[in-house]
């Protein structure tokens, strides 16, 4: 019989991860965000104001590529689940995919001197290739978070380090990208973007390798999943808590992607800031998310992380509407508000990602199958669908409200559309997330019971093997 004391000995003390390994794990997401962070924040701006594509065309591009990429995610998860190597199932892809990821990033931000038709084709092809390689690297990385430890508290801690370090990477990018574009391009913003993103990609390469060499996979499936890929897709749908988690991932990303993609337009055209102040405003917001990530464990060690998640989302509903109440020309007040909003927003992010390992444990307990790759990739599928929806939604909103690229004097309806994107849409996303997770059952007590049952099952299997 597995007692509470034995459980603590086996899953808490023995799987307490070192700071070095947690930081190594965090370097993986930092690497991803050296490339994906600027894409989230600046891609729509790059395509409208630098590459000079029509916003409606951008909406089509983002929607098509991101939906296709999202559909590919579960297949990559299934492939990773079936990978066998001396480095584990998921870590090898950090090694194999890092260099192609760098090259695809360079292609993505290169602006060819060619006809309009060829530029449209090139933009589609480059974004398609980058998204595909990102899938090959990022799905295994996200799966690694569920097998690096089986301790639910350490999973939150790993995600805390992950998002803090990802925040540092995004902060670095937001602080330096636009100045580097000016410096490296010598007035040519097209070349400036290319060389700046090349530099970021090479830094990401070093971080991927650091993650590979400093982490290891500890959680092993008690029984190998011999199902075919399509049958595994059907099996994961029987995990009702995974379905909630994946749907929650879609909703949770709406405030991040909508506001994150529109904030540069808000700072430039509504707040009327110059390039220097835009960089500072966005960077302070990113710095606030780092602090928010580091505060997560303070809340989750005192209260059940599910209750913390729901409560903070409800607070954010009302805070998000603050953009309508604050004078955008009052820089000091807006800056303070934006910092506080981002701190509170980010507290829930490590919690959400820790749920992925929990629902994987729940699936093994309920169905007798561990499907870490498909479990993580299904959530990435939801994330990328959200990214596709949000990118297209931003571009369509700009088009419908008569946004004029790179024009300091925007029409009143364009300014209202931008304010709608940074305030009301995120508020709706926060509320929907809070309501959905009222049906999520894997609270602290339930997870402890599941861990006890899995530990008992593991010991039974080991006894039978002897």
Automatic annotation (TrEMBL):
The keyword Chloroplast does not apply. Its main location: membrane. The chain crosses the membrane at residues 23-47, 53-72, 93-110, 122-142, 163-181, 193-213, 242-271, 277-296, 308-326, 332-356, 377-398, 418-440. Keywords: Cell membrane, Membrane, Transmembrane, Transmembrane helix, Transport. It is found in: Cell membrane. It holds the Pfam family MFS_2. This is Sugar (Glycoside-pentoside-hexuronide) transporter.
